[in-house]
Amino acid sequence: MSRILNLRARVRQYLRERRRLGFALRTMGYALRSLAAYAQDRRPLTLEVMAEWARRDRAGSSDPRTWARRLKLLRPFLRWLQQFEPRTEVPEDAIFGRVGERTAPHIYTEQEIVDLLVAARRIGPCNLRGATYETLFGLLACTGLRVSEAVRLQDRDVDLKNGILTVRRTKFAKSRQVPLHPSTTQALQRCRRLRDSQIEVSEDTPLFVGWRGRRRGQMLSTRQVDRVFRQLRTQLGWPNRGTHAAPRVHDLRHTFVVRRLLAWHADGTDIDQAMLGLSTYVGHAMVTNTYWYLSAVPELMGLAAKRFEAFQRNAEATHA
Question: Which of 68, 89, 207, 319 fits a disulfide with 96 by CB distance 3.0 to 4.6 angstroms?
């Protein structure tokens, strides 16, 4: 067996072992397969080889933070690989500079979301394609679903009578139910009726399907969704208000959380009491992941400051 096959076999072995423990590892799996294809017969894996690979991401990024994040994905696998190949090197954070905990997302305005849906509706030439992407982006915006969760929805997961989605085996191998607003249910009904008029369906049919060639009637891939989104983003020319290179489709999820927190604050809702429900709704593994928004998103930093001031006043009153 050649060295490239050996490395690919090690990648498959590692992913198989980790997935048995319940880890999905979709992003890491893609990165490891990409590394194996790039490294070919260059063994042991050295920092130089991995740094070269990190700089060659498919988006052509020139941002060292992106390269550092790519290397960070490799480290668990590389430590595991050292038991078989002790000369394998493990990159540290500082090769391209340290990776921040998280970068600030682009929070969409209501008008930007409206413009996105209008632009999606107009993509063609098939009316099913436009309706699919309009409904998909709308669903992401009003539920905070991850793109991967939305594209994996099947008809059996969509209870339009009761307005509930069942999201199965999510990022952390958990399932959850997501209640829908009546307007969202109606939009899904319209999209499904159009889909049903053009393809043969069953309970396993994806809610959002491809519309031509081999992909007709098949589940959309996250790459397809991202490609269409990037085309629409270029067309719409939004100013970037996040710290990523450009607004992302995943920022619709962040926008949902931020707008929910802002609405609760405006209504006088006890955010601490409501936060666990929001965390469960969006499928966060830990409620601290939801609290992160209070300190990392400009729109909510003022809210966090007011919370601290209230805490400080209460503390002073207690010790007075």
Answer: 68
Measured CA to CA, the distance from residue 1 to residue 114 in angstroms comes to 54
Question: Which sequence positions are flagged as catalytic?
Answer: 146, 171, 250, 253, 284, 293
| Chain segment 277-305, per-residue pLDDT in tens | 998 899 887 777 787 776 667 667 666 56
Report the amino acid identity of residue 245.
A
- How many Å apart are CA 102 and CA 296, to the nearest integer? 8
Cα–Cα distances in Å, from 320 out to 22, 66, 303, 311, 315? 51, 50, 26, 14, 9
> Which segment, 98-102, 103-107, 140-144, 262-266, is predicted with the most confidence on average?
140-144
For 75-87, the DSSP string reads HHHHHHHTTT-TT
Cα dist from 298 to 106, 109, 124, 130, 275, whole Å: 10, 14, 37, 33, 18
Q: What value, to the nearest 5°, has the Cα angle with vertex 33 and ends 29 and 35?
A: 115
- Pull the structure tokens for residue 189: 């009904």
Query: The domain 110-236 belongs to what CATH superfamily?
Result: Intergrase catalytic core (1.10.443.10)
- Hey, where are the domains in the chain? 7-83, 110-236, 249-318
Residue 279 CA from chain centroid, whole number:
15
Cα–Cα distance measured from residue 194 to residue 209, given in angstroms and rounded to the nearest whole number: 11
The string of DSSP codes covering 198-236 is TS---TTSBSSBB-SGGGBTSBPPHHHHHHHHHHHHHHH
Q: Is the peptide bond before 44 cis (omega within 30 degrees of 0)?
A: yes
